[in-house]
Design goal:
With about 425 residues, this protein is of the alpha+beta class. About 35% of the residues lie in helices and about 25% in strands. The protein has 13 helices and 15 strands. The strands form four sheets. The chain has a six-stranded mixed beta sheet with strand order 7-8-12-9-11-10. The chain has a three-stranded antiparallel beta sheet with strand order 1-2-3, with no helix packed on it. Strands 4-5-6 form a three-stranded antiparallel beta sheet.
Length: about 425
């Protein structure tokens, strides 16, 4: 009763001041001693007296949460959870919960006259959209000018013939968007309210790229510096040699960029590569996000419809190289190395449509696909030869891929790691 009157700032009949900040409050229904600035709890409600205004015969008070009740509730919860925890049998593997349901929306598609196939998936959960473009030309062999596609990739997306590099990048930043290109690809994302502008910028950068001599020289010098940094890298050497042995140096998958091949490249080579291969003939554009299909279809046709297709472009199809008939061991002497890189490789013809595709992935996961895999537990945990050992297997629709297992170990245990 008293707490209800105090909580509603009920009228006080009498206040007796004891002189030591203690008072006695008397209402019509109750009488209570309390110290100013302290709390009093009645019927589970805690209140604090801040000031007393005798002239108005009112109390100014502030409600507080009942911390005692909260602590009691917390203690009960902890005790209850402890009892549950104690009843768990750790020797029995827990049963998995229900598998999450994955809903893959069927895209709406249309095709432009220049060959671009567009796929649109409307998803209105967030006010964003992403645009992915891929030109499906297949692997391209670059020969004595290996690295020309990498230079083109670095130069694309840095302005257009009508927008300078700085203005282009500043506008992308202002929109809070991202936009980038590869030698045969492109990607952009932004808020959906900027969809018109980001698609316009992407189309302009793809169709009218700004390929200048100044940017070419900068990117070429940067690539040469990167090669110098890899000269003493055991991992980089193993990667290049592994690909060359598996596919052959005269193939798109087996060739690698060298200082000599980079120095063979000039700006005209980059422009020729762009004019030959960066074409809409085999292009796919995928748009996912908060968009309207009819509106986006009209916009894509307007911005990408005038991209001129090539009349001579042909898709390239790589061919697989047979594995060596017997086990072959190749040594690369790098006297500066403090570790040995051990790499095992074998060509495979795995495709994602194979019946045993997922079984192969699971087998690789057990062998060397994670920290608890056989390879890592043996070479790292049991023997302490390395910080990590992994394996991987690739899948290709061309049936040109390989299985690899690799690790880096201390020089003095190289032979033991190979044996184990």
């Amino acid at each position: 009763m008293f707490s209800g009157i105090i909580e509603q700032v009920g009228e006080v009949i009498n206040i007796e001041d004891h002189g030591d900040r203690r008072i006695t409050i008397k209402t019509k229904f109750a009488k209570k001693d309390i110290k100013i600035g302290s709390s009093v709890c009645c019927n589970g409600v805690c209140l604090t007296v801040h000031t007393i205004k005798k002239n108005k015969r009112k109390l100014t008070m502030k409600n507080q949460k009942n911390y005692c009740l909260r602590l009691l509730t917390l203690a009960v919860c902890v005790l209850f959870s402890g009892l549950i925890f104690a009843q768990i049998d750790r020797s029995v593997q827990p049963k998995p919960g229900p598998s999450p349901k994955i809903t893959l929306e069927k895209p709406q598609t249309f095709e432009l006259k220049n060959g671009i196939t567009v796929l649109v998936v409307e998803n209105h959960k967030l006010p964003r959209l992403s645009i992915s473009m891929r030109i499906d030309n297949g692997p391209i062999y670059e020969g004595d000018k290996s690295g020309v596609s990498s230079l083109l990739s670095a130069m694309l997306g840095n302005g257009t013939t009508s927008i300078s590099k700085d203005d282009f990048n500043d506008e992308i930043d202002f929109l809070g968007a991202s936009l980038g290109f590869g030698a045969q690809s492109g990607f952009a994302s932004s808020l959906s309210k900027y969809q018109n502008r980001i698609i316009e910028l992407m189309a302009d950068a793809a169709i009218n790229p700004l390929l200048t001599l100044d940017e070419f020289e900068k990117e070429k010098e940067r690539a040469l510096e990167g090669l110098k940094g890899d000269e003493n890298s055991v991992d980089a050497a193993a990667s290049r040699v592994g690909s060359a042995l598996s596919y052959g140096k005269d193939s798109a998958y087996g060739e690698f960029v060298s200082e000599e091949s980079l120095k063979n490249i000039n700006l005209e080579d980059v422009i020729d590569f762009y004019n030959s291969y960066f074409k809409p003939n085999n292009a796919y554009i995928v748009i996912v996000g908060d968009v309207n299909y009819k509106s986006i279809k009209k916009l894509i046709k307007k911005k990408f419809g005038n991209w001129e297709a090539s009349k001579t472009l042909e898709k390239t199809t790589p061919t697989a190289k047979a594995n060596v008939p017997k086990t072959e061991i190749n040594f690369i002497d790098m006297p500066n190395a403090v570790q040995s890189n051990i790499s095992l490789t074998s060509n495979v013809k795995l495709t994602m449509s194979d019946d045993d595709y997922h079984a192969v992935l699971i087998a690789n996961k057990i062998l060397g696909g994670g920290f608890n895999s056989y390879l890592n537990m043996n070479l790292r945990e049991e023997n302490g030869y390395t910080y990590g050992a992994r394996s991987g297997i690739g899948a290709s629709r061309y049936k040109v891929s390989r299985f690899t297992a690799s690790t880096a170990v201390r020089n003095m245990v190289t032979d033991s790691a190979v044996v184990d």
